[in-house]
Amino acid sequence: MTLTSFGPANRIKRSAETHPLTWRLRDDGEAVWLDEYQAKNGYAAARKAFADMAQDDIVQTVKDAGLKGRGGAGFPTGVKWGLMPKDESINIRYLLCNADEMEPNTWKDRMLMEQLPHLLIEGMLISARALKTYRGYIFLRGEYTTAAKHLNRAVEEAKAAGLLGKNILGSGFDFELFVHTGAGRYICGEETALINSLEGRRANPRSKPPFPAAVGVWGKPTCVNNVETLCNVPAIIADGVDWYKSLAREGSEDMGTKLMGFSGKVKNPGLWELPFGVTGRELFEDYAGGMRDGYKLKCWQPGGAGTGFLLPEHLDAQMYAGGIAKVGTRMGTGLAMAVDDSVNMVSLLRNMEQFFARESCGFCTPCRDGLPWSVKLLMAIENGQGQPGDIETLLGLVGFLGPGKTFCAHAPGAVEPLGSAIKYFRPEFEAGIAPVSAAVPPLARPIVVGA
């Protein structure tokens, strides 16, 4: 996936001053390898961090910059780093990169890993220095075979150049980095499920506390950060806090830039690095080019399948966590999906809930049983065999599987789009309710999740 542009975007030149994540990208979409990366000021931030900054100063700089997690949760990165133990006697610590990008409609991390693998390695190197971690793992979605190939090559290049391994840059600091390909489970995006999988265990989330910063992989202090999050670190160290904060639009409470995109039947589906605080309308009209001829925007999701649906009138919301929260959902991954007027919402939700039900780890009852139940009801409604009360049951499941009701955030994310779809498009659900005389008793409608 290459970055594309449309309309006003063609007049915006990517530069180090405005596009810290993407200015090094090649126009042909090929990977930027070590020599080219260093020619484009690559690893300069790492050299600065190693030569001129104390480890705690790196943590404080990232904290002051306001960098937040880019995987969807948006937790402040510097705060997370600050949770790692200060005890110098703990000499085994780990840094994990969460590259298990399985959120439907999201491919931003893939682009960074395939085209700018050294940016991620530099971000991890600086982060490892700050956190005093001697070993790191990139936990990569197994289907990302090109990313795996490119990352492994980049790791070997960095080793040969003395940027990984023993006594990095003559500092006496050692850091080994490994690429670990996962077996392919959505739940591995949850950091403790990722840790279990890395250890060779079943990918179930762990009880927290203890948090990974205290007891993580193999029982040692561990920090888990997303790919895009780590890729922001070099620019913050190189150019400073004030510059980084200045990138965001006025009114945004989130700092810096964000990889955002639009898919669906838009004229120019793509991925762009934009300042936090741009409006959904700018993203949809100026960059994605609006809907293709013959299609009309029905609704949209702002950041992956686990975010709620919004209507066209919500496009004026600013794209940052608080701005999207004002219209009733979450920023998520920042990659939006346009739903056109030919799509039946019941069928779309049945497909989504089927995915989420399949990807449940099965550990807690609300998620394990509630999501297949929603699939069963949606299949009945989709086939015109819903019965009175099914919609209310679905809304009840939205409440029962909401935040704080399940072991992790999988189920709350799964039912958020369901609740919003019923809220905005209830007549489409009501159209699938059969007359009372033709209704099929609930027990006669088997749960069919794997169909």
Describe this structure in words.
This protein is an alpha/beta fold and 451 residues long. It is built from 16 helices and 8 strands. It folds into 3 domains: 21-245, NADH-ubiquinone oxidoreductase 51kDa subunit (Rossmann fold, 3-Layer(aba) Sandwich); 247-340, Ubiquitin-like (UB roll), CATH 3.10.20.600; 345-444, Up-down Bundle (de novo design (two linked rop proteins)), CATH 1.20.1440.230. The chain is 39% helix and 10% strand. Its cofactor is [4Fe-4S] cluster; FMN. NDH-1 shuttles electrons from NADH, via FMN and iron-sulfur (Fe-S) centers, to quinones in the respiratory chain. GO terms for molecular function: 4 iron, 4 sulfur cluster binding; FMN binding; metal ion binding; NAD binding; NADH dehydrogenase (ubiquinone) activity; oxidoreductase activity; quinone binding.
CATH architecture of the largest domain: 3-Layer(aba) Sandwich
Shape: globular
- What is the percent of helical residues? 25-40%
Count up the helices.
16
Low-confidence stretches: 1-11
Q: At the first level of CATH, what is the class of the largest domain?
A: Alpha Beta
Radius of gyration: 23 Å
Give the helices and strands as they follow along the chain: HHHHEHHEHEHEHHEEHEHEHHHH
Q: How would you characterize the largest beta sheet?
A: 4 strands, parallel
Q: Quick one: how many beta strands? A: 8
CATH superfamily annotation of the largest domain: NADH-ubiquinone oxidoreductase 51kDa subunit
End-to-end CA span:
31 Å
Structural class by SSE content: alpha/beta
User: Might you state the CATH topology name of the largest domain?
Assistant: Rossmann fold
Spatial order of strands in the largest sheet: 3-2-1-4
